[in-house]
Amino acid sequence: MIRLLIVDDHPIVRDGLRGAFTGHADFEVVGEAGNGADAVARAEVLRPDVVLMDLRMPGVDGVAATQRLRERLPEVRVLVLTTFDTDSDVLPAIEAGATGYLLKDAPVEELLRAVRAAARGEAVLAPSVAGRLMGRVRQPARGALSQRELQVLKLVADGATNREAAAKLFISEASIKTHLLRIYDKLGVRDRAAAVGEAFRRGLFS
């Protein structure tokens, strides 16, 4: 059972999203919130598996709420669901720690698949968002990533834990951590989510 928290400042949108999950036995909508601050507070009480997060809301917006959730409840996955796919919306959301980014015009079945994938920790991007990120011009890095570092980063982007990445590459977890630290330094970031966002921004996964 995937426990969901729906966050959007429009009640009609929240009602529609709740209805989309009705009748599917593997989902349970445990709560709703109309702004980012309320979303964080409710998530701390309800402990959902996935938060469906709108971006542009009054007060605390979706990016700030995502950052707070990442800091306070790192096990909770945030799937952004918005009408906006501009660089100024996409990149901050991914860097804040969003597991995925989906547009509100997505078919219901695509939404269900995305939530299931997010619950598994897999990165989920709407096609237009992925195309936008992959198409960005590469910018000079502090140092080029090695082939092994790219392999590690791709596994991280796919949602692999350090243990899972180590098993797939037949190296130790300590080696994975070392590679990640080098990746962070080369990309000028401080954590996994920001590294993945920066890699997409530079087109390193193309």
Radius of gyration, whole Å: 17 Å
Strand order of the largest sheet: 2-1-3-4-5-6
In the CATH hierarchy, the third-tier topology of the largest domain is known as Rossmann fold
Average residue pLDDT:
89
CATH superfamily of the largest domain: Response regulator
Helix content: 40-55%
CATH class of the largest domain: Alpha Beta
Topology as a string of helices (H) and strands (E): EHEHEHEHEHEHHHHH
Low-confidence stretches: 137-141
Backbone shape: globular
GO biological process, one term: phosphorelay signal transduction system
Protein name: DNA-binding response regulator
GO molecular function: DNA binding
Pfam families: GerE, Response_reg
Characteristic key phrases:
206 residues; 6-stranded parallel β-sheet; DNA binding; alpha/beta; globular; Arc Repressor Mutant, subunit A; transcription; 2 domains; 6 strands; Rossmann fold
